[in-house]
């Protein structure tokens, strides 16, 4: 490292460490935000499940053997598929 002294190297290393720490801290905040949103959605789902009071055997059956019932069910399935694939 010709032409650099110890203090310049220290400043460069310190700046790199600070930038890395800020990046890591920002990523952690984003992870906590996403986790908070996912848990909020899960909590809302279970609250709504409590209001609806569905038959437990039907819920378990629907988890493993999906069916389409009623008018417009096929359109609903296609729109859900599009909402998941499009983003």
TrEMBL record:
| Protein name, as recorded | Uncharacterized protein
Which Pfam families does its entry note? Nramp
What is the taxonomic lineage of the source species? Eukaryota, Viridiplantae, Streptophyta, Embryophyta, Tracheophyta
PANTHER family xref list: METAL TRANSPORTER NRAMP1 (PTHR11706:SF54), SOLUTE CARRIER PROTEIN FAMILY 11 MEMBER (PTHR11706)
Q: Which GO terms describe its molecular function?
A: cadmium ion transmembrane transporter activity; manganese ion transmembrane transporter activity
Which Gene Ontology CC terms are recorded?
plasma membrane
The keyword DNA damage is assigned to this record: no
Provide the family line.
Belongs to the NRAMP (TC 2.A.55) family.
Q: Which GO terms describe its biological process?
A: iron ion transmembrane transport
User: What's the chief localization of this chain?
Assistant: membrane
Keywords linked to the UniProt accession: Membrane, Transmembrane, Transmembrane helix
Q: Topologically, how does it sit relative to the membrane?
A: Multi-pass membrane protein
Recorded hits in InterPro entries, A to Z, give: NRAMP_fam
Ranges that cross the membrane? 32-51, 63-86
Task: Please tell me whether the keyword Transcription is annotated for this protein.
Answer: no
Q: Where in the cell is it found?
A: Membrane
């Amino acid at each position: 490292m010709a032409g650099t002294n110890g203090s310049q190297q220290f400043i460069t290393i310190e700046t790199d460490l600070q930038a890395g720490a800020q990046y890591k801290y920002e990523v952690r905040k984003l992870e906590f935000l996403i986790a908070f949103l996912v848990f909020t959605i899960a909590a809302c789902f279970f609250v709504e499940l409590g209001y609806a009071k569905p038959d437990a055997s039907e819920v378990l059956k629907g988890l493993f053997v999906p069916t389409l019932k009623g008018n417009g069910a096929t359109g609903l399935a296609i729109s859900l598929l599009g909402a998941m694939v499009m983003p």
